[in-house]
Design brief:
This protein is α+β, with helices and mostly antiparallel strands. It is built from two helices and two strands; from the N terminus they run H-E-E-H.
């Protein structure tokens, strides 16, 4: 806190839950576009981190059918 006061910074707390508004989305082929509005101080990356689950994917290639 002393560092914040010494640099004349404001100490603000962020909301625990974010509530995006004006949400819209579209999907075409291999692209998804998501639009929404967040209040000041909130970050879109926080929303996407919670919504998108990374699923590891491994491809297997059949070397026998590969043409020379």
């Amino acid at each position: 806190m002393a560092l914040i006061r010494g640099n004349r910074m404001r100490h603000d707390r962020r909301e625990i839950s974010l509530h995006p508004t004006d949400l819209s989305w579209s999907a075409e082929q291999d692209e998804v576009k998501v639009c929404f509005w967040l209040s000041s101080g909130n970050f879109a990356t926080s929303i996407f981190r919670e919504v998108i689950e990374e699923i590891p994917f491994e491809r297997e290639y059949n070397q026998e059918n590969k043409s020379a």
